[in-house]
Amino acid sequence: MDAQKLEQALFNLVSNAMKFTSSGGVVRLALTVDEVKDTRCATISVQDSGTGIPPEQLEQIFDRNYRGDQSGMDNEVESSGLGLGLAICREIVQAHGGTVRAESDGKTGSIFYVSLPLYSRSRKVTT
Question: Global pTM?
Answer without folding.
Answer: 0.81
